[in-house]
Amino acid sequence: MTQIAGKAEVHKLDPVWRQIREEARQILEADQSLGGFIYSAVLNHERFGQAIGHRLAILLANGDINAELIIQAYGAALKADPEIGQAARADILAVYERDPACERYIEPFLYFKGYQALQAHRLAHALWSMGRRDFALFLQSRSSSVFSVDIHPAARMGKGIMIDHGHSIVIGETAVVEDNVSILQDVTLGGTGKEEGDRHPKIREGVLLGAGCKVLGNIEVGRCAKVASGSVVLSDVPPRRTVAGVPARIVGYTGCEEEPARVMDQNIGAAEEEES
Predict the structure, then answer these.
(1) 109 pLDDT exceeds 70?
(2) Residue 133 belongs to what H/E stretch?
(3) Among 152, 185, 242, 251, who pairs with 173 as Cys (CB 3.0-4.6 Å)?
(4) CA distance 103 to 171
(5) Rounded to whole angstroms, how far apart are CA atoms 117 and 137?
(6) How many CA atoms lie within 13 A of 139 on its CB side?
(7) What is the pTM of this model?
(8) Residue 86 predicted with pLDDT over 50
(9) CA-based max dimension of the chain
């Protein structure tokens, strides 16, 4: 007969959650006054998914929808789509790898609103897909108010995404953001007017979107491209290119031995020639 894994075995099978719990214990050793917070947020939960649902509930609940309803909704979403839990782990690793201000796995989970807003979107997207659209729109509205990150529940977000600083981010309904993308503050993935249908950008794998850039319309930013800070992109960006300006134009070649999203180098530098 198959045996159910105990707590210790569960932790061994989930290294991200095991590390977060260890870091939580280290916080308690350093400052016991945080005991109530750390136990409530981390140590009282056996599984990562339970902790994420609880954390979102604490942050997003209000007088209209209480924390218990959000916890229940996350449990239902996780059951319907276990990938949202795996994506949440990948997002933590992305932040830890790319953000020099992040020194522990627990920091995005507890404190970084870009990470928290992305997990709120993952819940909202799952509920949207399940037909619970008003609950999803409530979460979008609350996330916009609490985190200053407004992602339509229908937008499709890959995994391993970092939203750095998480402030003034807008991502429209038909936008697609693939895996391993980095998005800095004040980025808009929007439309160009009142057009209907598929009207928002498609951001391919490994792209870096610099602070304050605006990517508008049903256009594609190709794999491993880089959009410089403050740029306005109105047409397709080929893979492995750097674009800058208003409107944006090609100013260089990214190479992509390492994805721009992972390297996080926002300098434009001199235009480079593509290797033959």
Answers:
(1) yes
(2) helix 133-147
(3) 152
(4) 28
(5) 14
(6) 32
(7) 0.91
(8) yes
(9) 65
